[in-house]
């Protein structure tokens, strides 16, 4: 890749943003790493950014000609915040925008779907990343990781439905191409791993890799919604439970060639991810 201008990476300390910022910096690209606390990110210039604090947006955008967009977390209707920012970004000289959305949300759909729909009218160079469910959902502080550690269960309303789980490293690799390739994709990119797996399949793989029994506990839509409601806005809890119900109906039972087509290598499998992140050897210092 040739050196580009300056990329503003929103959410530069998050799951995909941190990986995008690191890959861009390693490739010699100039990066403004945006986060609420302007946390230092090696190889970048750190800047403060908060979706709810528009006064900081101008400084974050200054000098940037492209932007990686992480929507405000947990907001079921982000258009009211994001569209004015995108108009400001265009006026400030941003010419390419790459939005992180979801494989479950098409253009014109809820939440980021409306931002997706507006993006081509705002920028001549654009892309919408629509990854499937993250493999990282089984690590760190994600609720699945918490219940696995607590009692060896994964709780979903997906039934026997299958998902093309994808590694955040692969999402970031696609994002960097979308941000820096000479020709912008100017389309949406559905990003999956190499296999569609049920949560029963996931539990079996985790059992093998972690050396302890992990089981998939099946909930109804209502049970999952009510479980999420105490810690999330009611509308967002219903949205997330509805996504699980859609999986049960087959909405995510697919794989794509996006990772290999853009990066030249196949996406990482769930087993390889689990062996890297969750195996007993990975958890014991060498």
CA radius of gyration: 19 Å
Count of β-strands: 11
Q: What is the oligomeric state here?
A: single chain
Report the principal-axis shape. Answer: globular
What does this structure look like?
There is one protein chain. By secondary structure, the chain is an alpha/beta fold. The protein is built from 12 helices and 11 strands. The strands form 3 sheets. Strands 3-2-1-4-5-6-9 form a 7-stranded parallel beta sheet, with helices on both faces. Helix 7 runs parallel beside helix 11 (270-277). The chain starts with 5 loop residues before the first strand and ends with a helix. The mean pLDDT is 94.
Main traits of this protein?
286 residues, seven-stranded parallel beta sheet, two-stranded parallel sheet, globular, 12 helices, alpha/beta, single chain, 11 strands
What topology does this entry show?
Blueprint: E1 6-10, H1 17-26, E2 30-35, E3 45-48, H2 57-61, E4 66-69, H3 79-92, E5 96-100, H4 112-122, E6 125-131, H5 143-151, E7 153-156, E8 162-163, H6 168-180, E9 187-191, E10 197-198, H7 199-210, E11 215-218, H8 221-228, H9 234-248, H10 258-263, H11 270-277, H12 280-283
Parallel strand pairs: 1-2, 1-4, 2-3, 4-5, 5-6, 6-9, 7-11
Antiparallel strand pairs: 8-10
